[in-house]
Design brief:
Length: about 475
């Protein structure tokens, strides 16, 4: 297997570009702070990238607003995972045209996974002439230089063909949350599930060195983060490209040994590499939440094979049953795709039966969306959209029943929760259990960001209601 070395490539020259940007913007704004607006689509990986872009912009003197109207710099961070995600980006970027007409000095930029697909990036660059900067996921560490070129050169800047598969440490980070945070432990994916675009837009799987992860985890815990999620497309294959690296189970065990009051989560776990050792580590840990997000995608062995998932129903259920036996009340969640090419109603019924057998807390459900360049996009797909829609609704109603039953079984129990936000009225707060279930309870907003105990008094289909003790 190819080995990747970790390089600290957020080098001096990129820092110098940030200083130059600072000067340009100070001159333009006559001492007022330049404003940036960033809209991120897609998964936590994109959110984590967005936090690094914000970190760099902050070093160049920018402040952030949550509306584009007043911004000197607008960035749309795109996702390519399904057609719907892409359509939203097209609509959103189209709508920025009027804003650019009104404020011609605003620089509009596009980045993220869509920009790593040549046909899409070309189309966007051509269709949206008011977009001044385009770059893909592999160019994140060069962002200062690219932004400087756009601001100073008077020309549009477009960098796509950059198949850099390295890790660039040392990029400044400005995290969106103050008590919930993301910690990337690896990038890219080598699995090539036949429906999925991610390996094409995120490059080969590469893990960060253990010492950088431990030091970032330490820093987050010391600065008050209460809920930390380790990120990777398949965290269970952590370390495979590194020499003498711990396994994921060993890594998370080491993080868990850091003192403090926090929860540790991780996503995503691929069933093909999920081990009993990892389940044991969760069961015996102090901080790892009793929650396993384990995407199964389909309950049919025939479809799992066509998806190139490298596990079957039996192996999947073995992990689930082991998790249930070792971790009392473990909360299981998953991703599932309906309407993969060639799926029959018989296959779909196996998905339903798997859902009934596992009893998930919640599911992320998707209708299959063909992605240009993936093997599944050229497979025969005879099922009509109407039929897929019917199956999809059936799936939702089965899951709703299961989730409601699970929620009802929690009435009367006391749960430790992290209070996250105001619901918006009547002093109701949103809190979350270790198993990732939302609990609504009345209370003062001073509680936000702290762990509390809540007595569950009522159950809805997906959420719980309760009272803080
Ligand atoms: N690495 C993660 C998932 C990343 S994408 C994993 O392997 O679990 C998140 C989810 O999007 C996937 O789990 C899958 O359910 C869904 N997905 C990916 N490509 C899709 C496609 N082409 N159509 C529909 N759903 C898709
Ligand atoms: Fe996509 Fe499969 Fe990789 Fe997940 S493991 S990102 S579904 S190719
Ligand atoms: Fe989307 Fe890229 Fe994540 S395609 S799901 S933002 S890795």
């Amino acid at each position: 297997m190819e080995k990747f070395s970790t390089v600290n490539d957020f080098n001096q020259s990129q820092e110098e570009y940030l200083n130059l940007i600072y000067e340009i913007m100070q001159n333009r704004k006559r001492g007022k702070k330049p404003v940036a607006f960033i809209r991120t689509y897609g998964c936590q990986q994109n959110v984590a990238d967005g936090e690094r872009i914000k970190g760099m912009l902050e070093c160049a003197g920018f402040v952030f607003e949550d509306k584009p109207d007043n911004a000197d710099f607008i960035l749309v961070n795109t996702c390519a995972v399904r057609e719907h995600a892409e359509d939203r980006v097209f609509g959103n970027v189209g709508a920025l045209k009027n804003l650019k007409l009104k404020y011609p000095n605003t620089l509009i930029a596009l980045c993220g996974c869509m920009m790593e697909q040549k046909h899409i990036a070309d189309r966007m660059y051509k269709s949206f002439p008011y977009v001044g900067l385009v770059f893909g996921t592999h160019a994140l560490h060069q962002f200062p230089e690219l932004l400087y070129r756009s601001l100073s050169g008077g020309k549009r800047v477009y960098l796509r063909d950059n198949d850099d598969n390295l890790i660039h440490e040392g990029i400044p980070v400005k995290r969106d949350g103050t008590f919930k945070g993301w910690l990337p432990i690896m990038y890219g994916c080598n699995n090539f599930c036949t429906y999925c675009i991610v390996p094409y837009v995120r490059g080969r799987e590469r893990s960060r060195e253990k010492y950088v992860i431990l030091s970032e985890a330490n820093e987050m815990i010391c600065s008050g983060y209460k809920d930390i999620t380790l990120l990777g497309q398949n965290v269970n294959s952590y370390g495979k490209n590194l020499k003498n690296s711990p396994s994921f189970a060993e890594l998370i065990k080491e993080i868990d040994s850091i003192e403090g009051d926090y929860w540790l989560r991780f996503m995503t776990s691929h069933p093909k590499d999920c081990t009993h050792e990892l389940i044991d580590v969760i069961a015996d840990s102090k901080h790892i939440s009793k929650h396993l997000h384990l995407p199964f995608q389909s309950g049919s062995d025939r479809i799992l094979k066509a998806m190139n998932r490298h596990y079957n129903r039996e192996k999947y259920l073995d992990i689930v049953n082991y998790a249930k036996s070792r971790i009392p009340d473990v909360s299981l969640t998953s991703d599932v795709i309906v309407g993969f090419p060639g799926e029959t109603y018989e296959d779909f019924k196996q998905t339903l039966s798997l859902i009934r057998e596992v009893e998930y807390t919640s599911l992320f459900t998707f209708i299959y969306s063909p992605r240009v360049g993936t093997p599944a996009a050229s497979m025969d797909n005879p099922i009509s959209d109407e039929e897929k829609g019917e199956w999809f609704r059936e799936l939702l109603s089965v899951q709703e029943e299961i989730a409601a039953k699970r929620c009802a079984s929690m009435v009367g129990t006391v749960q430790k929760v992290l209070v996250e936000s105001e619901k918006g009225k009547d002093n109701i707060l949103n809190a979350r259990t270790s198993g990732n279930i939302i609990v609504e309870a009345p209370g003062s907003k001073d509680l936000i960001g702290s762990f509390r105990d809540v007595k569950v008094t009522k159950a809805g289909n997906w959420i719980l209601k309760g009272e803080f003790i």
